[in-house]
Amino acid sequence: MGFKKFRINVIVRVLLITANLLLLVILSRNEQQEVTALITGLLAVIQVAVLIRYIERTNRKLTQFLESIRHSDFSTSFFDRDLGRSFEGLNRAFNEVISEFRKNRAEKEEHYNYLLTVVQHVSIGIIAFRKDGKVDIFNNAIKRLLKISNLKHIRDLGVIKSSLPEMLLSMNAGDRQLIKLVVDNELLQISVYATEFRMRGEEFLLVSLQNISSELEEKEIESWQKLIRVLTHEIMNSITPISSLASTVREMLLDESENSVQIHTLDEDDLDSIHQALITIQSRSEGLLNFVETYRNLTRIPRPNFRYFAVKELFDRAHTLLKPKMEKLGIVCVPRVFPEDLMITADPDLIDQVFINLLLNAIDAVKEKTEPRISVTASPNSNGRVSIDFSDNGHGIKPDILDKIFMPFFTSKKDGSGIGLSLSRQIMHLHKGTVTVKSSPGEGTVFTVTF
Length: 451
Description:
Helix content is 51%, strand content 20%. It is of the alpha+beta class. β3 and β4 (186-199) form a beta hairpin. Keywords: ATP-binding, Kinase, Membrane, Nucleotide-binding, Transferase, Transmembrane, Transmembrane helix, Two-component regulatory system. One of its GO terms (biological process) is phosphorelay signal transduction system.
């Protein structure tokens, strides 16, 4: 029997206590045995205390087991060979649980060391810190990037740039920032991305810092080259005929010999030719001035006046403005907002321009289709940001010009100015948002605006 030995011990102790109590009753009736009775009573009390302690050994063992788990002390072992097989089973169960906890802790430590090795190995700088700024972990890339050896609090980064700690502490999940830092007299362009997570009931912010100076320089040079090519093309288109016509007018008006300059005698045809040439020169000059003015306006977009409003308002204003043109061309436009009360924080006047530009592009893309269709859909994306898709079933954009459509003054339209998409991208940049495009030739195009 499992508790045989334990029961025998308990029965023996109970019998001894009973015998002591009977003896105590007998002795208490004899006045001459008062001392003996007192000793017998004390012995009975001691026996009761020992019995209780003996019986409560299981409770003490269970308490010891739970305390070991509470304090993550898995070095304890449980052995009692004098209480029977059932207590041996209890001890074995305790030891097996302790062993499993020990194994799980070892696996967690291995997993933690593995992740720590990965974090330390990546080339992108990583800092994880609490909301109060106390740094939990940072990797070697941060040490190399910021030239620091220790980082206990995020405010310690104030020695690099005074505004850097506040900027990092104010970031929220999904925020992106491009900052400039001077480290060891070297200017760095740092891309900062933030995400949040919760651990041990406490909120943490994880930020990654990556030096993209070389990539930005490369893109900047490429952008300047593209812009210079466009500007050169537009300017040459105006300057070449102006120069040619000016030379023609000069030859018709002046007789330039070695020693003197005389005016030719002009007939009616010559006067008419000069008149037409001067009109063309004036027209091309005004066109060139308008081009320069347009470029100046493109670089002077007003700062956004942010307010919180419903996305549906944008849809209604743009649809009302362009509805006559779409009806004339037989274009079906389907606006959808999920949920209907979806809100954004933006400058409605500037975003109206973005909506109109993208809708006009979609109208131009589908106007020659037999069943022209435009769909505008707004909804939260997987990152919790608001995305608006402008989809059309038009002719699509050729792959070789897909990377040029946001470049100022680039256009594939005969009557296009080439500033609509560039202006839209700049407006979204001021809103910390993006404009992206996906297109399949012959199938259609989707422009996505993300706030």
